Amino acid sequence: MPIIHYRVSSEQVAAARDALLTLTAIPGCNRVQFGETFTTDRSRGYTHQLVVELADKETLPVYAKHPMHVAVLTNHLKPIFDLSTTLAMDFEC
Hints:
By secondary structure, the chain is α+β, with helices and mostly antiparallel strands. The protein contains 3 helices and 2 strands; from the N terminus they run αββαα. Strands 1-2 form a two-stranded antiparallel ribbon.
């Protein structure tokens, strides 16, 4: 997630992180990790990464539409991240 560096405070990023971590309350959301890179030589301009582990691929549409997820996206991520440049992948292990 490339961060929009202008007008973004460390408090806003921390609030986004804290909000993201609450998403494990959504049924089927097993784990949420969010952090800032500490190296830039391989990050291709990306500054933050979000990893969400879901129970199975059938959980993805439920998670995506869940009111908690929508609220975090709307209130915390969209205001500070340029989501049009986000790289997202969904895969099974």
